[in-house]
User: What shape does this take?
Amino acid sequence: MRSCRFLMHWTVPGEDDEDDKALDFYFKSVEMRDKTPEEILRLDHLELLPLLPATQGGTSREVIELMMKRLQASGDTDLPYYGYLVSGRIMKFLGQQDELLWLQERYKTMDEKFRSSPVYQWTLDEGIAIGEERGKAEGIALGKSQTQAQTLAQMRKRVMEIVVERFLSLAGLAGEIIAMINNPDPLLDLIVKLAPAQSTKEAEQILLQAQAAG
Amino acid sequence: MENEKQENKKQENKKQYDNMMSALIGRNPQAFLDLLYPGSRFVKHHRNKLANSQRQPDAVIEAMRIKTGKRFLAQPEIQTDPDETIAERLALYQVLVRWDHYKRRSESESESKVWIPVSSSVLHLTKAHAELQIPYALDSPG
Assistant: This one.
């Protein structure tokens, strides 16, 4: 699999004509368009499948259908949605209007649960989701967002109660992390995992995992 | 006013993509290690909100090289659009992540002080910025 190592080379004017070295910084740079769908499939990770549309020929209907089939079969609610979003984003970037329309048509038939996703409004703004559904979606989103805000507040409160009661030194970290989580599922997951945690170290890992999972 | 609104919306949407990518890495860090750091194994997550800074990389993952057992912090950044500041941003994260880890270790009674190696990487979903080339040279005035 191809990747490049980049060098950022900082210099400052030297005493003579030549510059003095100040800092050399290396980093890896990988472009998904340099990869084939097969390379990603070979790695055999479900969480990499939403990146398939960004690979060479990844916006072909064959690849999109394959990706969606596998993601939907996983039973996960977020991953197929991510796959659709990345597909739309890449098609927009490549100026593939016909494919974008095809994707939107496919999207139209997708399960209703996508429409209730908190990121649905964003996909409307991005022009990936279907425009004619905008009015309806906005109405649904408003009602849902009010209910969801209350649920989130209650769940955050419960997480903080557990942390303050059992792992007080992690209260600051927990506060920062739960403030960034805007989805009830990871918060519920956090409550379930924190409650039986046996040590501060274990609780810290649980919080950091939740942070990374967003 | 309208431009400002559009810019805010653009930033908000960018944040959504960032959150989505962070969520993907958080769910399965090993997948991204296999993609960006083949031959390494996930050890644990580290906090990605860096102390004394508003900066927040997509993820900070402690990993181990399978062959040698050596540990390092992988700092992958997933870039949806080309960004001319990505090299500087990665350099900034590199120093902050390293510093943050060192300070935490120093404050802990049970852990010894250590400067952990950090490896920064960027995964471009569309394409890298045109000016990103080897070597990336920056001359600063004296």
